[in-house]
Amino acid sequence: MRNLCGVDVSKAWLDSWSAGRYQRFANTAEGVAQLLAFCREHSVELVVMEASGGVEQAAFLALWKQGQPCAIANPRAVRSFADAMGNLEKTDRIDAEMIAGYADARQLVATPPPSEDQRRLTALTARLRQVTADLSVQKQRLHSTSEPTALASLKEAIAFFNRQTKALAAEIAALITADPLWAELDKTIRSIKGLADRTVAVLLADLPELGTLSNKAIAKLAGLAPLANDSGQRNGRRRVRGGRPSVRSILYLVADVARKYDDDLASFRDRLLAQGKAKMVVRIALARKLLVRLNAKARDAREQMAHAL
Description:
alpha/beta
């Protein structure tokens, strides 16, 4: 059994478990330094944390910076592992122990931290998504009042969010242009008519694996791969689940736009509808077909860049 350290991360604490030893540290720079010392004292090979909405990132990056290998585990998978092991209780201490047990059972390996530019692109794209949603809400509220002061307030908010949208889009574009690989992938993605700035930003930020995985793997990563649900003679309905919601959402939208300019996508959609497939099934299949095409194009672009170096 490898010497692993499971860490349950919250805003306030880093609850750690390694080889029967439990320790709680504050989720601060000082607490991370103490966790690092704890790991080195006990010769920990790998620190494993659950993805916790970004709360884990500060400790994850700080440990990597000091040379301590770390990995991120899927929280749903850890919870399922705990249930399977008969641990129905849930405390921070138990969670830390279950994270370590899950990592050992699955033989998790270190998850290298993203580059500074990748982290920045991800943060800017997430913020642009938030601002766009806020802008949409403010525009909808324009129709809910005729009171002059309320209308003026709404228009001021809309102007503010419009400025934010333009500024964030410009920052993202500059970041992509400055990176040779991203710039090449940008051109590759845009080669499919109907795909533009927002699609490029989401794919590069939230699906950096594009062009590095098989078509089946990339579809599953995005949550667009139907999962088998068979048992004996029963062939259950296959559904999609999990994956990356931001990627899936943008692909649903742009796939429907792209098929208007692409005969292959359009005929594929028409065939499915003619077979009586449900509209949501068709929507998923169209998005998956577009993603597979993008993955192949991105793979070619990466290979061409590698040969050029």
